[in-house]
């Protein structure tokens, strides 16, 4: 496809940053746009695997602690999230439960929850309501020091970074630039990729074996850097 046609489909506004970052070379701009899409696909795959692992880890912990229907039960009267500080979490669960109607099952209700929901179980109100046990999901995390507390707030903030990247990809925002600038740079993608791998390791998951054949992120980053 010639650049004018490419621009007609995607818009000059969307492509402006790509053009500026490669010295207004239209061919390189199209290549960079495509490589950004590939990088987004690769990262989304890794994040999706992590989200499933996180969800399953939380589910195992709370199933042992609260019973096999813990998610539904947590939002019912007297449930752990039936309080003023966790009202939004309770409402999300109840809304999802209502959508399922008579098709409820615990696995289906789990699947209704998004990454942000799982992240917020590490927020202060939800973490306390759940009995302060969710750090068992990350058994290999470092021991806290006076300089760094590897507590639920730390995990909440780390998950927030991954969620931000996930949302950028989901909303078709580029991830191959310095944020907010028309400067080609893969450090943002690399940093969040390394963070995701680190959290896998803290969960005692062999991320290299899990992602075998799926993870080509560093290859694509190198291609973008060399463009």
Overview of this structure, please?
With 227 residues, the chain is an all-alpha fold. The chain has one domain. It is 64% helix and 0% strand. It contains twelve helices and no strands. It has helices spanning 3-10, 12-21, 26-66, 70-74, 87-100, 106-112, 115-120, 124-129, 152-170, 187-202, 207-210, 217-226. Helix 9 crosses helix 10 (187-202). It is elongated, with a radius of gyration of 21 Å.
Gist of the model:
The protein is mainly α and 227 residues long.
The main sheet comes to: none
Number of helices: 12
Give the strand tally.
0
Give the overall average pLDDT: 95
Instruction: Give the overall silhouette.
Output: elongated
> How much of the polypeptide forms β-strand, as a percent range?
under 5%
Report the structural category: mainly alpha
Question: What is the H/E order?
Answer: HHHHHHHHHHHH
Quaternary state reads single chain
Percent helix range: 55-70%
State the domain count. Answer: 1
Work out the radius of gyration.
21 Å
List the helices and strands and how they pair.
Elements (H helix, E strand, L loop, with lengths): L2 H8 L1 H10 L4 H41 L3 H5 L12 H14 L5 H7 L2 H6 L3 H6 L22 H19 L16 H16 L4 H4 L6 H10 L1
Helix pairs in contact: 2-3, 3-10, 3-12, 9-10
